[in-house]
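#struct-pred

JT: dropping the chains for the assembly here, can someone run the whole complex?
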Amino acid sequence: MKTKAPSIRDVAAAAGVSTATVSRALSSPDKVSAPTRDAVFRAIEQTGYRLNIAARNLRKRETGAVAVLVPNLANPFFSAILSGIAAVMSEAGYNVLVTDTTPFGRGDGVTGHQFPAFANARHVDGLIVLDGLLPAEALDSLGPPQIRPPTVYACEWSELVDRPRVTIDNVAAGQGAVEHLVALGHSKIGHLCGPPENVLTRERLKGAQAALAAAGLAMAPGWVYPGDFSLESGARAADAWCAAPDRPTAVFCASDVMAIGFIGALMRRGVKVPAEVSVIGFDDLDMASHFVPALTTVRQPRPEIGQSAARLLLERMDLSPATRAASPGPRLVLPTELVVRETTAPPPVG
Amino acid sequence: MKTKAPSIRDVAAAAGVSTATVSRALSSPDKVSAPTRDAVFRAIEQTGYRLNIAARNLRKRETGAVAVLVPNLANPFFSAILSGIAAVMSEAGYNVLVTDTTPFGRGDGVTGHQFPAFANARHVDGLIVLDGLLPAEALDSLGPPQIRPPTVYACEWSELVDRPRVTIDNVAAGQGAVEHLVALGHSKIGHLCGPPENVLTRERLKGAQAALAAAGLAMAPGWVYPGDFSLESGARAADAWCAAPDRPTAVFCASDVMAIGFIGALMRRGVKVPAEVSVIGFDDLDMASHFVPALTTVRQPRPEIGQSAARLLLERMDLSPATRAASPGPRLVLPTELVVRETTAPPPVG
DNA sequence: CTGAAAGCGCTTACAG
DNA sequence: CTGAAAGCGCTTACAG
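RK: done, full complex below.
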C-alpha cells in the first residue's frame, strides 16, 4: 500500500480549480478572488497538502537554504555564533545547514566523506564560513563569481580568499589585553597562543607584541606558549610555566577555554591566581564570570557576530551576480570590550 | 549577462551522449562502458558541471537532508550531541538541517517565524528531536505515520508522543548521584532542579528521591531549589542556600552548568566546597574536570548519544512506511557513569 | 551498453 | 481573475 503525500494536483482537483490557481493562492493570495481562495484553503485542509520545497526550489532556481561551515561544532564559542545566524536566517525564511569542517582540509587534508556535503554548498543560496583554514581551492571550486553562492566569512577568514566578512579587530583586542597587564605594572608578560595556522593566532599575538613594544617591553621566547584553543593545551602551558626558571608574571591567553585549562592546572599545583600570575582570557564565555576567580577577558559580541554575518549574507544574496562579482563587499568590524574581573592584579613584589 | 550553471544536458552535449548516460555515469558507473564513462567525466570537468540536488531529490522523492530540532543551540551540552549527529549523518551522505526551537512552543507559545522552517520538516528524510517540549501537535501535524518523516527523540522526549528514542536512564543516574552522597554520610541532601516542565527534571528528581527513600531519608521542601539549567539559576540557588537556616549539606544539581553557577556563587560568598557543602553535577562537560575544585558529576556519553540517534534514524529511514507505522521502534538507553572528583566529601562534623 | 521519453511537483509568463 | 502549457534538472523503467 503505497501512500503518497498529496500534491498540488490533488488540491486543485478537490477545489475544482487549476494547479496554477492553487499555486497563486499560496504565493500571492491577493491575485486570487476571495471565494476561490477559500475553496483552495479548504481543499488544502481537507487533503492535508504540504508544499514540496524541492519542487519549488527546482522551479525557482533557489534552494531556500544557507550553509554554515563550522570548524568545530562542539566548541561553545561557535555554537553561540551559530545560534545568532540561525535566528536571523529562519526569521528570513531560510533553512540553515550545518557542516562541521574539522576533518576537512585541516592537517591531514581533505577526507573524502566530508566532501559531498560541502559540494552541495553549490546548491545552497549562500554560505557562511567560520573556518579560515578551509582551503581556498574548496571555495573557488564552487565556480566563478557569477555562479557560486554568495559567501561571507565570520570570526575567521582566509587571506587567500577575498570575501566580505564580519570579525572583530583581533590586533586591537590583543593589544588592549596586554595594555591592561602593562598598566597593572607587569613587565614580564607571556602569551598562550591559538593554533599556529590560524589567522586569529597571528593577529592576537601581533596585538600583544605591539602593546609590549609601545611600553618598551618584549616577550622572552620561553614565554610564548603553544596552544590550540583546547583545555588541554591550557593545562600543558601551566606545566611549562611551572617548569621554567624565568617566568612571566602575567599571561594573555588567546581563548577563555585555554585560560580555564591554564588556571585550573596552575591552581591545582598550588599556584595562586592572580597573586603569583595574572591571567587574561579571550571571548568572555558565559561561564567566565562564574569562575572563582572570575576571569578577566576580552568580550566578543558573539550573538551580534552571528546576526551581522547572517544579515550581510542576506544583503549579498539580494545583489545580482554581476554586481556581486564587481564589489568585494564590506568588512565589518565589531567592537570588543575588556572585562576586568578577578584574574588580573599587579605583579607580585620582589 | 545571465550566467547559468551547466546542467546535465550541457555535459551530455559536450560528451556526445544522452543525459541518461551522464546520469548513469554519475550514479552507477559500472553500468556504463569505460570509454563512455571517461568521456562523460572529461565533459563534466570541462563544463564545470555540478549535480543539482534539488532536481535529484524531486525526482527520487527524497530530500537528502535530516532536520535536528535543538532546544537551545547556545548550550554546550547540545552542541556536542549535534556534533555526533552531524558526523554520522554526513558520513551517510545526508545534510543536517538545524533549527533552534527555543522560541517555538515554549512558554509564550508558537512564534510565527519559527514555524516555516519546521514545517519544512515534512520535506526532510528524517527528524531528530532533542526538545521534549515541542508540542505533540507540531509533530503530529507532519501527517499520518505513512507520510511523515521518520522521527527519533534523543536526550529528551515527550510522553505524549510515541517515537523511538535514545536517552540515558535519568532515574538511575539521579539515584546513583544521591547514593554517592548518602554513602559519604550525608543525610540532609538537596536538589537543584531543571525547568519544571522538562521530563529530565522529573526523572532526575525521582531518582534522587528513590535513593533517599532507600536510605530512610527525605528531602525537606526548602532543599528543593528551582532551576532552569542556566548558570544564573545556579547562582540563585546559592542565595537561597545561604539565606535558609536549615541547609542541606549536599546538593545534587541537575546539570553541570547549574552546578558551576551554584559553586561559583557559593565560593564567592566564602562558603567552602566541599567542606561546607558537597555538590554533584550532571553531564560532565569538558570543563568539569578543569575547575577548581574539579566537579563530581554524572557523565553522559554525549558523542555516543548523538551518533546512536543518527544511526537509529538511518535504520528507521530504511524501513518501509508500513513497517515503520507498525513498530514503535526501540528505546535505547545508554550508560552513564558517576565521576567522583573534588566537590563531594563527607558532611562537616557537628 | 545506450537512448527516447515520461514524470517528480511546482511556478510563471502568456492568453483569455 | 483563471487556465493551459512549458519547463526547472534530474532519474528510471522500457526498448533496442
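JT: nice. Residues 7-9, 19-20, 22-24, 27, 51-60 of chain B lie near DNA strand D (CB under 10 Å from a C1'). Chain B has three domains: 8-51, 64-168+302-335, 170-300.
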